[in-house]
C-alpha cells in the first residue's frame, strides 16, 4: 500500500475500516463520521472501476472491495437490532467480556450460583439478538463442538 500513497483509494479503504472500528470502540463519533465519508466516496470509485475495468488496477479494486465488506460487517453487527431498541452485538460482547473476567477470578462457592444465573440471562439476550436479525444477517452455524 505504501507505493500507492496515503491518499489512494486502497489506503482510504483501510482507514475507513480502522476508523469505524476504533471510533465505535472508543466512542469517538468523529472517527465514525470520517469513516462513513471515506466509505461513500470509495463506493463511487469502486463502481467506476467495475464499470470500466481498464481504468484501474483490478487487484487493488478487489482488495478495496474486501475492505469495504469489512466496513459493512462492522456497521451491520454494531447497529441495534432492526428497528427495535434492542441491544447491538457490541453491547452483548461487552457484557460477555465483563462476565468472563468475573468468572476467571477465584470465587466462593456461594458466588457461583448468581454468576451462572447471569450467564443464562446473557445467553437469552444473545438468542433475542439473533432472532431480531433480518434473515440475511442471521449467524449461521458452520460446525459444532461436542461436549466431552
TrEMBL record:
Superkingdom of this entry's organism?
Answer: Eukaryota
Protein name per Swiss-Prot or TrEMBL: Uu.00g125400.m01.CDS01
Q: Which organism is it from?
A: Anthostomella pinea
